[in-house]
């Protein structure tokens, strides 16, 4: 059965309530190996671009929330200057999460639920280029049992990938196919960093291991970047854009912090978050934050996505991984599938912590217009 | 001469963490070459946790000795170890299911070559000569059923209550075009900023208006006076901590540049006792000698600093400005 049949061929558009919240605009800087602009300058640019798309000014914003990481930036309170991207006077209402911008969006969504403001902006920004992720990331692990071992993120991903392969849930060929598909899609997306890399599955499989069983093509690049989304509550959303991407479900769940105590071939937190966000029936496109190929398989299986769901048409985290923005970029890409490409139901996912510890699922829907199925207007991506 | 566009800095932090009764027991047992897990329902969790990872319920302190041998459940090969890795020769990261345990332990395996490693192989610990109660008291695992132990019997378990961990990260910060211009001007003895076309305030060392959130390009550059007025200050009595070089009470002052609202914070006032510093005092920058000017403190984080170019500020001898004019300037 296809995704559309699952959802019922004649899915009816839900009546939008004043309390419903939509993404009306998104913006991102292209992921690059090294961005010379400061994080504040990057954020100024993406906020300007996102607001311009819907004709809003900063003075229209009721709340903003940023996601960034001092460990990546390399300075205590380095997130404070980032606030200048929203302006400082008159006083603004803002917050910050030491997490991917997807969780900043979650906080902005909760804030809008209060009902006293209509417009919020969520942002994510990070410059991984300044440090060595292999040396830095052990510091986010359990400080007693894991950090002293210097367990780097690629080695951990390799331990996870091997269990997935040896449990029969995937093959090295499938992982290479995921890499090849991501690179093909990235070639058409100027926001992605890895464009024009090898796309032939057999040639990828002929390359040596970087961390057995992972090859370089199974890994994300090291990227700098930033992303912003504008969230609007109630009827105002439809005034600002023709086809808002309504957030019909948003949930995040976390698992035990020590990855060795989990079944690494499954993602219970993703499954629960997906169910709580309304499930995947009818989802046409899923943007999954899978910085390693094997993690895409785990996420797809945990969510129960049908075979015909288009995965990561943006090129995904495998071809552009601006940490602290990567997850929000996935949600922005899923929203753009509705805002721009006319899709009806899409899913954005973000992950945080080692080996898919914490997962966020956002389900988005577009209204069906009077001219019939708006998905027909979209391209095939 | 232009400044380097890169600054390299290393942040080091010596942690000393308390371990609590559960991890403390695990690390204490390691000093006697024993590995313990904790019972959680039907399962034995290794390394032990204070709570059931499934339910979050606190676990009774029911410890169970496991291993020391176990079975590899997953592995990957590290051909080129880096400084933060525990071994300096090629090794495998492994998930080990110790005999008697129901969860896996992350550790490293010294197997000589990648070909010697496979899932299902049997491994046992190589113990450190003089254990200290850290996870790396197990130096690594080695192939086989038998632990690789130093000569002689282990002593009684030590009572390990804390763990030291030294973290170190090196950053390479590449300056933005705005900051490169800013630093080059500082090297030439010029303090520069950009004036916001909307609010007419001038901003130093950042390239945008902090009030109106507008990018300010090089066309808005202007040279600012290196004179100003102390708008605020604090006197700090130093307490010793790693990196603290001061031993006597010292002052840090905010200086508002003359004719503008731009405040440079955290400045030294030179050549007068800290007790004589006051709000409203007129000061002039004391620049570092040409040869000593250094852009190492200029980074892409923060709001622009003059550190490395301006040593401090000296009282001009002119009459003070009225202090009340500066009372609402915190920074």
Ordered list of secondary-structure elements with their pairings:
The complex is a heterodimer of chains A (381) and B (331).
Chain A lengths: L2 H5 L13 E8 L10 H15 L9 E5 L2 H4 L20 E4 L3 H13 L5 E9 L5 H4 L16 H14 L5 H16 L13 H6 L2 E3 L2 E2 L8 E10 L2 H5 L4 E10 L13 H9 L8 E3 L5 H11 L6 E2 L14 H14 L5 E8 L5 E8 L16
Parallel strand pairs in A: 2-3, 2-4, 9-10, 9-11
Antiparallel strand pairs in A: 1-7, 1-8, 4-7, 5-6, 8-12, 11-12
Helix pairs in contact in A: 4-12, 6-11, 7-11
Chain B lengths: L5 E13 L1 H11 L4 E6 L2 E3 L17 E4 L3 E9 L12 E8 L6 E5 L12 E6 L10 E6 L18 E13 L2 H11 L3 E5 L6 E3 L3 E2 L4 E2 L5 E4 L2 E10 L13 E8 L5 E5 L14 E6 L22 E6 L16
Q: What this model shows, in words?
A:
The complex is a heterodimer of chains A (381) and B (331). Chain A has 381 residues and is an alpha/beta fold. Chain A contains 12 helices and 12 strands. In chain A, the strands form 2 sheets. In chain A, strands 3-2-4-7-1-8-12-11-9-10 form a 10-stranded mixed β-sheet, with helices on both faces. The model of chain A is unreliable at 1-12 and 370-381 (pLDDT under 50). Chain B has 2 domains: 20-160, no CATH class; 172-326, no CATH class. Chains A and B meet through helix 2, helix 5 and helix 6 of A and strand 1, strand 5, strand 6, strand 7 and strand 10 of B.
Descriptive tags:
heterodimer, A: 381 residues, Peroxisomal Thiolase, Chain A, domain 1, 2 domains, 19% strand, B: mainly beta, five-stranded antiparallel beta sheet, 2 helices
Principal-axes geometry of chain B comes out as elongated
**CA-atom Rg of chain A in angstroms:** 20 Å
What is the averaged pLDDT score of chain A? Answer: 92
CATH architecture of the largest domain in chain A: 3-Layer(aba) Sandwich
- Give a short account of the largest sheet of chain A: 10 strands, mixed
Shape of chain A: globular
List SSEs of chain A in N-to-C order: HEHEHEHEHHHHEEEHEHEHEHEE
CATH class of the largest domain in chain A: Alpha Beta
CATH topology of the largest domain in chain A: Peroxisomal Thiolase, Chain A, domain 1
Low-confidence stretches of chain A: 1-12, 370-381
Count of individual beta strands of chain B: 20
**Tally of separate domains of chain B:** 2
Oligomer: heterodimer
Low-confidence stretches of chain B: none
């Amino acid at each position: 059965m296809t995704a559309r049949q699952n959802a019922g061929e004649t899915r009816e558009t839900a009546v939008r309530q004043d309390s419903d919240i939509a993404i009306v605009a998104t913006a991102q800087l292209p992921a690059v190996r090294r961005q010379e602009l400061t994080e504040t300058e990057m954020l100024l640019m993406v906020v300007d671009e996102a607001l311009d798309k819907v004709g809003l000014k900063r003075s229209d914003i009721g709340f903003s929330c940023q996601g960034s990481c001092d460990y990546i930036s390399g300075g205590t309170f380095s997130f404070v200057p980032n606030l200048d991207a929203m302006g400082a006077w008159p006083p603004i209402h803002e917050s910050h999460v030491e997490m991917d911008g997807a969780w900043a969006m979650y906080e902005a969504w909760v804030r809008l639920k209060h009902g006293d403001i209509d417009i919020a902006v969520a942002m994510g920004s990070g410059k991984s280029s300044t440090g060595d992720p292999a040396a830095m990331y052990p510091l986010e692990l359990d400080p007693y049992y894991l950090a002293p071992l210097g367990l780097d993120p690629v080695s951990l991903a390799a331990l996870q990938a091997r269990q997935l392969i040896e449990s029969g849930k995937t093959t090295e060929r499938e992982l290479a196919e995921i890499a090849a598909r991501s690179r093909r899609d990235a070639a058409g997306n100027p926001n992605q960093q890895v464009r024009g890399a090898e796309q032939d599955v057999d040639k990828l499989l002929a390359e040596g291991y970087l961390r057995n069983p992972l090859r370089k093509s199974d890994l994300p690049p090291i990227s700098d970047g930033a992303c912003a989304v504008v969230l609007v509550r109630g009827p105002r959303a439809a005034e600002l854009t023709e086809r808002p991407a309504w957030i019909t479900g948003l949930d995040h769940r976390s698992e035990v912090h020590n990855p060795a105590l989990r079944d690494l071939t499954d993602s219970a937190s993703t499954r629960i978050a997906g169910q709580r966000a309304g499930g995947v029936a009818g989802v046409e496109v899923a943007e999954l934050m899978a910085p390693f190929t094997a993690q895409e398989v785990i996420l797809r299986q945990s969510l129960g996505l049908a075979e015909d769901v288009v995965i990561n048409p943006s090129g995904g985290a495998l071809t552009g991984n601006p940490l602290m923005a990567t997850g929000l970029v996935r949600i922005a890409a899923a929203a753009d599938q509705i805002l721009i490409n006319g899709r009806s139901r899409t899913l954005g996912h973000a992950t945080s912590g080692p080996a898919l510890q914490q997962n966020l699922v956002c389900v988005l829907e577009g209204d069906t217009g009077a001219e019939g199925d708006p998905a027909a207007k979209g391209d095939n991506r | 001469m232009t400044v380097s566009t890169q600054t390299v800095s290393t942040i080091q932090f010596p942690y000393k963490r308390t371990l609590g009764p559960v991890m403390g027991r695990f690390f204490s047992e390691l000093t006697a070459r024993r590995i313990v897990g904790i019972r959680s329902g039907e399962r034995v969790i290794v390394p032990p946790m204070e709570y059931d990872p499934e339910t979050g319920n606190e676990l009774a302190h029911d410890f169970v000795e496991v291993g020391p041998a176990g079975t590899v459940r997953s592995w990957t090969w590290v051909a080129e170890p880096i400084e933060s890795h525990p071994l300096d020769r090629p090794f495998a990261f492994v998930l080990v299911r110790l005999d008697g345990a129901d969860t896996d332990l992350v550790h490293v395996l010294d197997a000589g070559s990648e070909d010697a490693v496979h899932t299902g192989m049997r491994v046992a610990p190589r113990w450190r000569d003089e254990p200290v109660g850290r996870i790396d008291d197990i130096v690594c695992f080695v192939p086989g059923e038998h632990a690789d132990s130093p000569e002689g019997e282990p002593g009684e378990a030590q009572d390990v209550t804390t763990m030291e961990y030294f973290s170190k990260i090196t950053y390479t910060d590449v300056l933005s075009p705005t900051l490169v211009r800013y630093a080059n001007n500082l090297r030439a003895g010029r303090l520069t900023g950009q004036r916001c076309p909307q609010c007419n305030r001038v901003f130093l060392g950042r390239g945008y208006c902090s009030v109106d959130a507008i990018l300010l390009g090089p066309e808005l550059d202007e040279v600012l006076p290196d004179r100003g007025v102390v708008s605020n200050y604090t006197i700090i009595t130093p307490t010793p901590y790693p990196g603290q070089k001061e031993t006597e009470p010292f002052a840090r002052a905010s200086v508002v540049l003359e004719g503008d609202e731009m405040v440079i914070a955290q400045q030294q006032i030179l050549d007068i006792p800290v007790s004589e510093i006051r709000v409203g005092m007129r000061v002039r920058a004391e620049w570092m000698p040409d040869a000593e000017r250094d852009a190492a403190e200029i980074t892409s984080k923060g709001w622009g600093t003059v550190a490395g170019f301006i040593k401090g500020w000296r009282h001009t001898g002119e009459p003070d400005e009225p202090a009340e004019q500066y009372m609402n300037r915190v920074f």
